[in-house]
Input
Amino acid sequence: MKEYTIDLEPVGLRIITNEEMTILDAAQRAGVEIAALCGGDGWCGKCRVQLMQGNLSPMSEVEQDILSEADKSSGIRLACQTRATSNVKLNIPPEALTTAQRLQTEGTEEPFDLDPMIHSFKINLQPPTVHDLRSDMLRVQDALEVHGIRHATISFPLLQTLSNTLRALHWQAQVVVRNCTEVIAVLPQDLPIFGLAVDIGTTKMAGYLVDLKNGLTVSKAGFGNPQVPYGEDVVSRIAYANQHPDGAKLLQQRLVDRLNEMIHELCRYANAQPEQIVDSVFVGNTAIHHLFLGIPVSQLGTAPYIASVSDAVERRAVEIGLAISPAAYLYMPPNIAGFVGADHVSMLLATNTVIKSRMRGETIVSLDIGTNTEISLAHDGRLLSCSCASGPAFEGAHITNGMRAMPGAIEKVRIDEGTAFYQTIEKAAPIGICGSGILDAVAELNKHHMIDPNGQLRPDAPGVESEGRRSRKYILVPAEKSGTGGEIVVSRKDINEIQLAKGAIRAGVEVLLLEAGISSDEIDQFIIAGAFGTYLDLENAVSIGMFPVLPKDRYQQVGNAAGIGAKHLLLSREKRAHVDELIRGDEYIELTAHPEFTRIYVDALQF
Amino acid sequence: MDQIIENIFESILDGAQKVTEAKVKEALESGLSADKILNEGLVAAMAEVGRLFEEGEYFVPEMLIAARAMQSGLSILKPILVEEDFKPIGKVAAGTVKGDLHDIGKNLVCMMLEGASFEIVDLGTDVKPEQFVEAVRDHGCNVLAMSALLTTTMPNMKATIEALETAGVRGKVKVMVGGAPLTDQFAKEIGADGYAPDASQAVSLAKKLMAA
Output
């Protein structure tokens, strides 16, 4: 097979490809992240690259279809459709490179008792003599007996280093014991020990390093999920895993590599070493959970969407390649069903949704808005959950001038007498609109009757333009004021995307209410979690019908509750025991199979 | 055009379900034939909805809302049309492929086809290849319409076409496919007779396939 080189600009990387591999595959294998929302099927048209030098395979029908004449004449091609036929030089336009973005690591925390899985004891051992021939391990076990730890076992990786470690520490050691049964680390006496909690979102990841002795968060970091280039939503990633040999393995490897980078970063801020991380908790939706653990996902990609495992998983972290203390464990809370996974369970835990509902008899809706939005309703001792395909519109995808929440993104919009006022992230010149901005814009257009109940822009409304027979658009930022030199608009199509997203979320809530046999005014608390959920304007979300109308004080925006829940699971054995019980008897509703879903959804599409 | 037919036409364009129902009843009472109400009111309105959609004036929400109004009108006309031995222009078996439960797009296609005087055998969601084969064999359908919304279930379209071939009924039916992740190229690769990117174009494709 012939091999060629590809010079990638502006990355400045030379990678190897062959005549059979697509440019996208070659770039992804080399770790260059080119946006491919569809997972390389060709329909999203995002993986644009520009040919600077050399020859590529002839243009496919998909490319003929998707690329404009201007694109074609300037050498733009779709990386997923194209193969090299000589050594080539390619330019990746900025919009096709997945880049840094604003991430969510903050959240509201509720107080609870510190009771981690991990305990550590300072022990001062007597060195062996000819009269004291106890083995090193027995010496440690005897010392632990004093602290009430009987018959402690030792993990094998640690056994392989124990004798040397004890001597290097001159018999003055800190022995780290997990669940009062197993010695998992032997460290210098005064070294702090840490736990790692990570919320692995479909798009974004938030990690926390927590001091296990006092429960304080010592550092936090936000990273993008490195699987995004293989498919923006989890279904595309499952398809990638199905269609590529070793695809699932590659997705796992990318994730673990990025998590190890995150661990490195978290340690750097805290002035710590990865060996000091002696416990870890990870949460994610069911697909992410399976991909992370290397569990097959193909059965999850097809109805009736069956998870491989619903119980909590505890394994040694080293088994999947995480670079923390060699004997440390990783814990993932249970999955519910379908795509409602460990992250949602973690969110329910952090918000005390189930407890409050049971103790106070309250009716509580909790949801986490993302590409998939998971919703739970706790009412009268029942817990009902569903997952709705709200799509990536609130991540800025499929929106004409959409972008992730990065500097220059319009994040707030107000319209006054047809003129738009807006605020951008870091007050940079506007280059696009992120989720909270597009939500504001649509709500404002609706509020000022500039769109009709079906979402059509009114042609006589100020600022609305029609491009000939094509759909109408509202000019949010004229070309001369934008940071890109082009105008930033809200098109009818953008409004449509928001309608589909808000309709799906509202329909999910309504179906759960219907199943519980109650109406929306019986909701005592409406809890909104997640990054977008924190930044969105609540009033606007209600005015476009995404959420039901309730008295203001019943809504709560709680931030990254899934991440907070992961921290709680790190710090409390009681919570780990409780989490299994929490979701016992949970009723999962498959929306797409619900007889009333389509009717409710169509109603929810309107303004 | 009769004022009342025009009202029906307008009510469907506006997606005003209640108005459509009332006006269809009123039209029947005033002595207009079900056939005329169907063709000049319902079918004409849905053709206009399709045209507006293709011109970028209407989007999926308007189409869904209009189709819903049309269907409520149609359900009033149906018993009468059956009595009058109304002949549909073709028979379409439709469903989402095995493993796929997402049926909003498929339902919209069904409604648009119904609004264009096709008879629909709606097989629902998660339809196995052998169920499609049965429908073609037992109901004498001229067209088979499959939809897939998930990249993970798209391969089941090919499996269905292969099942039609194995059963020896592939020649009896035209196969059309659709769904968000599909492309024309994919449709050709799996041996389908046509691909429609949206519900409006599904109608013209079905008509074209019937004529071929």
Remarks:
- The interface with chain A takes residues 15, 55-62, 64-65, 68, 98-104, 107, 125-126, 150-154, 180-186 of chain B (CB under 8 Å).
